[in-house]
Amino acid sequence: MEENLIYFKKKLTETGIRQGWWDSPGIVAALSGGGDSVAMLWLLREFYRGRVVAAHLDHCTREGASHEDAAFVRELCLKWGVECRVKTVDVHAKRLVGESFEMAGRRERYEHFFETASACELPFIAVGHSADDLIETQLMNLFRGTGLAGLRGIPETRGNIVRPIIAFRRESLRTLLRAMSVPWREDASNTDRTYTRNRVREELIPWIKSNLNPNFENAMLGLARQIDAEASEREAEARQSIGLAAADIPPALACWKTSSLEGVSDAKLADMIRIQGAILELPVLSRDRTQKLVSLIRKGGCWRFQWARDIEVCYSRRGIGWLHRKDIVKSADKNSEKPWLPWWAR
To answer: Which pick of 106, 136, 269, 301 has the fewest CB atoms within 10 Å?
Structure first.
């Protein structure tokens, strides 16, 4: 096992240097209690020199099982001497209008992670996505029609969010935990095949390996690395364009000056749209819907485009903004005496 530990340390170090957090003063580790996140915390505690603070959100779900997850996380961190911050939230009760439970859970989790990072003055947040998560995401994006960017899978970093175990396969992480006699908790929902990701994991990938290509997963990881390199260059250019186009028009979550988009190519505009959605942590649009939004922007006029259940993109000559529907309705009611003007142009 000693040779394996050398391998794990080397790979974690390479990943940390590449992602920019290896020499940082500390990191928040998102800890669900599942195998991937527990393995990530073990590796950080074992090999990373900075301060590690674990963060866990109790979703108040699964008939009390989420409380047991929280208790497990607390006990594990106490045993390892790792500072642990657990937040309890009734996610069902916290759902916004039109928001799914999954979206609400993700929003609440990341809010807790960012709050923890701010309170502890730590520059990075580590989440436990493995190489298997990347492959599953590639396939799901392919079937949703998200285009070339979707085949990138999961980016290694996004802002101050990093993925220390993205280069490790899930089974190798489980093998490490077993060898070190480290327990973890399995969420029963991970094998529930009513969820698309679980069907991809449990049915589709094994079928492809058995019938088409036994090295399929390595091929997908290689494709992800190739696309990631190309996408990083395009993303940097698109982010610069977003910065030049940005405008402050409350209560928009984000807003661009329409005049700044005139010289932008359709390909770059599509990149800008995708990246703005990622910045706002919105669901990924399909390629067709992204192109539809590009076409609407080129057409001009005055319109609203539904991105997610509670988020719309609103356009007028003044600007294009991403807004909560409740803010659109509120403003429309407030300015009902001027129905011929779009609310965001008043």
So the answer is: 301
What CATH number corresponds to the domain at position 339? 3.30.465
How far apart, in whole angstroms, are the C-alpha atoms of residue 284 and residue 341?
30
Cα 83 to the chain's mean position, in Å? 24
pLDDT at 345: 47
Condensed to tens digits (0 to 9), the pLDDT of residues 209-268 reads 999 999 999 999 999 988 888 888 888 999 999 999 999 888 899 999 999 998 899 999
How far is residue 77's CA from residue 53's CA, in Å, rounded to a whole number?
9
How does DSSP classify residue 95? P
Distances (CA, A) of 94 to 87, 108, 144: 14, 8, 28
Predicted pLDDT at 105: 85
DSSP, residue by residue, 236-299: HHHHHHHHHHB---TT-SEEE-GGGGTTS-HHHHHHHHHHHHHHTTPPPPPHHHHHHHHHHHHH
Query: In the sheet that 303-306 helps form, which strands lie side by side, from edge to edge?
Result: 254-256, 320-324, 311-315, 303-306
Q: What percent of the chain has pLDDT over 70?
A: 92
Spell out the residues 6+ positions from residue 80 whose beta carbon is closer than 8 angstroms to its own: 41, 45
Residues 55 and 168 in one domain: yes
The set of residues, in sequence order, having a beta carbon less than 8 Å from that of 83 and lying 6+ positions away, is 52, 53, 54, 77, 120
For position 185, which CATH number holds?
3.40.50.620
Residue span of the structural domain in which 329 resides: 246-345
d(CA 156, CA 15): 9
Indicate whether 310 pLDDT > 90. no
Q: Are 61 and 92 in contact (CB under 8 A)?
A: yes
Q: For 259-286, how does the pLDDT look when each residue is reduced to its tens digit (9 = 90+)?
A: 999 889 999 999 999 999 989 988 888 8
